[in-house]
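Hey, quick one: can you model this chain's 3D structure?
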Amino acid sequence: MMGRLRFAEFALAAVAALVLVGCGDSPDPAATVPGPDSAQVAKVRREAATQTENMVAAVAAGKPGAPIDVRFDVTTKPRLGEPLEIKVAVVPLSAVARLHVVFQGNDGLTVTSNGELGPLDKPKVGAIIRHVVTVVPRSEGVFTLSAVAVTEEGDANMSRSFAMPLIVGVPDAAMNKTTSAAKDATGQSIQSLPAVETPH
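Sure thing. Here's the predicted structure for all 200 residues.
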């Protein structure tokens, strides 16, 4: 129980650190946790993409090697001041002892429900962990819902932030252009907005 509490405290501290550090600081190469085998990761990603074909991939900046993937789907048009459900799929790419995800919006986007996922002990590699986050846009423009994922494996804790963009109050054509502009290695659409990485 104490281990879970300490891990949850670390997750919250990681969220605060990512907010303070922002996107401008580079991670310490010496502190980077090695990523899982690339062939196995590619296989898991392909299988996850098949099971979440209506979703697009959120993007983490920095070096490859994140132990999870995050995908999302917005089924209704975001409207100013109205609750909006965002369907999220978190996919472990490699074995971790514990996983905790905290969702937060930037200025103008408020998370009102289901702002945390976990902590989850030993999530299965390749499993589709589904979660629904409710947000309320407070102004018009382009906003980012961030998923700050903290993983624990042995004595190492790693935090990684994934960006999910939302467009409020602009023509549908602009939204379609944004969501179809880029593709990942599996041919799925990705969102190339800033994210930050803070290894521990």
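One thing worth noting: The chain has one domain: 2-22+33-199.
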